[in-house]
Amino acid sequence: MLPTIYDLLALPLPTQLIQGRSFLPLISSEKAAIHQYLFSHTGGLLPCYVVRDLRYALLLYEGGKLRALYDLDNDPWQMRNIIDRQSERAARMADAFRQFALTQRTTPLQFVDANARPRAVPRGKNVTLTEETKKQLRTLGYVQ
Q1: Mean pLDDT by 10-residue block, N- to C-terminus, for the chain (144 residues)?
Q2: For the chain, where are the alpha helices, taking DSSP H only?
Q3: N or C: at which end does the chain have fewer Cβ atoms within 10 angstroms?
Q4: Overall pTM surpassing 0.70 (yes/no)
Q5: Which residues contact 100 (CB under 8 A, 6 or more apart)?
Q6: Which of the 8 DSSP states describes residue 111?
Q7: Domain boundaries, the chain
Q8: Domain 36-121 maps to which CATH number in 3.30.1120.10, 3.40.50.1820, 1.25.40.180, 2.60.120.620?
């Protein structure tokens, strides 16, 4: 959303701070699609990433070994894992996820590589707060 607003206002996007792409080419019909895949993360007992295209869903579980591929046109309830029959498709989707993962601040490569570990998020600089800032933070309920 924010990259689209920057694009509409013809402002340079601060890519070191903001991730994503503008939807303006899609809105203006310049392009029919911006992304080939959608990536989402699920929580719960077995957290995983889901890589979706218009027809298939690839589930990548932490540890990089457990995977499932479903044909949503023929199996909307995701009952039949077809990863063995569609291994090339699954590999392409996993590679797309790897490329996506490398763009994230906390790289979730452990979902496609059993030996990968999450990259640590860099710590910010220590900041000394002024009394005025502390007062504002107390007013907002962030500190007591």
Answers
A1: 84 78 82 81 89 96 91 97 97 93 82 75 70 84 77
A2: 2-8, 24-27, 87-101, 131-140
A3: C
A4: no
A5: 37, 39
A6: G
A7: 1-34, 36-121
A8: 3.30.1120.10
